């Protein structure tokens, strides 16, 4: 029988790290490419994560992008929210800006999370907090490399921020912690698995994380759509939220 990992944070980190290595192994096999590679990576990694969580935390709920949802999780206080490969386009293109998300929502709050960046490689986790890099003279706003939102562009222009295009949501959120960006503003549509783990890690590092109207991020909902997100340093949050409201 598998040894039970008592710490939820340690379990999240091991799951994310191992899942990332599995995805890299699938990619590095060289047997498939493009969209087929993304589909295969998602499927294989999801199978591992679902089975590992069931073995380690059989009483907890699970919500995964790659598994059929069931109403059973709605009655659970503790729900693991996972994205096996966040940024399948970037993964399939063999870029580095993709991620693996393993988050744990407790009472609807993003309490514990680990985000693996296998292309770096690095695992950022909610229980191991590092100091944020100094704020640069010119702020940087990380945006989608394929479909940056009009509101993000407008806010960036208003505050004189440089746009930094990047792939997956997890990579963009972790860019703020890693010192590659200062603000991540998104309004183009996401789901709970896109931002639960990143939000948990960001909050643990002392960052601001909320909806773009300033309301809290709430997880394990019947409707898993969570379409907008702001992750940034706390000193920038009020200004950005005000500008978003004005742009409207």
TrEMBL record:
GO terms for molecular function: 3'(2'),5'-bisphosphate nucleotidase activity; metal ion binding. One of its GO terms (biological process) is sulfate assimilation. Signal peptide: none annotated. InterPro entries: CysQ/Inositol_MonoPase, Inositol_monophosphatase-like. Mg(2+) binds at residues 65, 83, 86, 194. The keyword GTP-binding does not apply. Keywords: Magnesium, Metal-binding. It comes from the Bacteria. It holds the Pfam family Inositol_P. The keyword Metal-binding applies. Its cofactor is Mg(2+). This is 3'(2'),5'-bisphosphate nucleotidase CysQ. It comes from Croceicoccus ponticola.
């Amino acid at each position: 029988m598998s040894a039970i990992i008592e710490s939820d944070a340690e379990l999240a980190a091991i799951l994310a790290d191992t899942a990332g290595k599995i995805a890299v192994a699938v990619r590095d096999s060289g047997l498939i490419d493009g969209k087929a590679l993304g589909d295969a990576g998602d499927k294989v990694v999801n199978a591992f994560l679902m089975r590992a969580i069931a073995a380690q935390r059989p009483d907890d709920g699970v919500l995964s992008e790659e598994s059929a949802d069931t109403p059973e999780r709605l009655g659970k206080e503790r729900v693991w929210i996972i994205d096996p490969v966040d940024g399948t386009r970037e993964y399939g293109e063999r870029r580095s800006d993709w991620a693996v998300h393993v988050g744990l929502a407790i009472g609807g709050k993003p309490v514990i999370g680990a985000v693996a960046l296998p292309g770096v490689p690095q695992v950022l986790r909610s229980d191991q907090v590092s100091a944020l890099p100094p704020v640069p003279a010119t702020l940087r706003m990380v945006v989608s490399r394929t479909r940056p939102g009009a509101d993000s562009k407008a806010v960036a222009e208003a505050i004189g921020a440089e746009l930094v295009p990047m792939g997956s949501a997890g990579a963009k959120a972790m860019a703020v912690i890693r010192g590659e960006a200062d603000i991540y503003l998104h309004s183009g549509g996401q789901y709970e698995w896109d931002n639960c783990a990143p939000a948990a890690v960001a909050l643990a590092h002392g960052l601001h994380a909320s909806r773009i109207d300033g309301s809290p991020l709430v997880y394990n909902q019947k409707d898993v759509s969570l379409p907008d997100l702001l992750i940034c340093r706390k000193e920038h949050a009020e200004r950005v939220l005000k500008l978003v409201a004005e742009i409207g």
